[in-house]
Amino acid sequence: MTQLKSFAITGCLLGTAAGDALGLALEGLSRRRQAKMFPVLDSHKLLPGGRGMTSDDTEHTCMLAQSLIVTGHGDLAALEKKFAANFAWRLRFWLLGLPAGIGMATLRAIIKLWLGFPATKSGVFSAGNGPAMRAALIGVCFGHDLPRMRVLVRAATRVTHTDPKAEYGAFAVALAAYIASHGADIAPAVFVETLGEHLTDAEFLSLVRSAADSVMRGESAEVFAEGLHCGKGVSGYMYHTLPCALHVWLAHQKDYRAAVTAMIRLGGDSDTTAAIVGAIVGARVGKAGIPAEWFDHLAEWPRSVAWMEHLSERLASHCATQTNGASLWINPLALFVRNVLFMLIVLTHGFRRLLPPY
């Protein structure tokens, strides 16, 4: 059991990181501009030599893993407050590290936390896709215990986002990741039916059903995205991100490379959307199913690939034993130095976009 959990959790976390890093250099670009600037997408594009770095998508997933280790088990009645409070403190100190590219809703929520709002009152009304980018691990770890998974998804979402749409999307990602971790394909119609047993929002279910129907008709993700008015790129709005991400996952359930590149090529918020798809498919294929060069060429420190694997193993151990433990230490000064360098790299990359080809 521990070995199976470790396989899926490691694949989910490294799948998040690899997708995030691959999509980061293309974030915010339209499909057309992507194709002109990066006609071949087989390696990271942020740094010379095909090297890449991760963004807040991976950072939030790692912080969530730490909070799951510390508070994920125990009394269900107290779980929501305990988990939210622990995750909220991690978000507070994460902001002090000067992260680049933080979403506005998340920024406002963390400022409220520093002003003294409790974690249960800090969220802002937003349907951004931030909660979905960190939800897959919850499903992999606790999908077998639906009440616990639901409480943890709710807590992880509402710390920053209170619009129900954000929570629906995060729950769908957690459920998809749990299903993927079982190692077998699921028919698109069956996934819609399964999701409908747990969610009742007609608008969201209609969007997911349209994605499933599109996959069954053999339509490309590009055609489906155009139908959602995302022809130039997938936005960070949850009801744009999630239908497109689920479409790509359902069409490429055991092919990590195809899934992540297809998601990125839709344009728009490509690092987050690729992180979401990468997490789900990664839970299915494990580390071995991710192109080795995509995480071998991550220029990350102190959250190195080895550190993330260690974190995954610790989380898997506590999931298997159903006990809480100590989080994995990481040097805050090293994180600050890394973030300053990352910000300079992102700014340089931004200036590069002002140049041709257009």
* Main beta sheet: none
H-E order: HHHHHHHHHHHHHHHHHH
What's the β-strand tally?
A: 0
Number of helices: 18
Question: What number is the mean pLDDT?
Answer: 96
Give unreliable regions as ranges: none
* Global structural class: mainly alpha
User: How large is the radius of gyration?
Assistant: 19 Å
- Global outline: globular
Overall helicity = 55-70%
Measured by DSSP, the beta-strand proportion falls in under 5%
What does this structure look like?
- It is a single chain.
- By secondary structure, the protein is mostly helical.
- The chain has 18 helices and no strands.
- It has helices spanning 2-24, 31-37, 56-71, 76-96, 104-114, 130-133, 136-142, 146-158, 164-180, 188-196, 202-216, 221-227, 238-251, 256-264, 270-285, 292-296, 305-321, 332-352.
- Helix 3 runs parallel beside helix 17 (305-321), helix 4 crosses helix 5 and helix 10 runs antiparallel to helix 11 (202-216).
- The longest helix is centred in the N-terminal third of the chain and has 23 residues, at 2-24.
Question: What attributes characterize this protein structure?
Answer:
358 residues; mainly alpha; globular; 18 helices
Break the fold down into its secondary structure elements and pairings:
Blueprint (H helix, E strand, L loop, with lengths): L1 H23 L6 H7 L18 H16 L4 H21 L7 H11 L15 H4 L2 H7 L3 H13 L5 H17 L7 H9 L5 H15 L4 H7 L10 H14 L4 H9 L5 H16 L6 H5 L8 H17 L10 H21 L6
Helix pairs in contact: 1-3, 1-7, 1-14, 1-15, 1-17, 3-4, 3-17, 4-5, 4-8, 7-8, 7-9, 8-9, 9-13, 9-15, 10-11, 11-13, 13-14, 13-15, 14-15
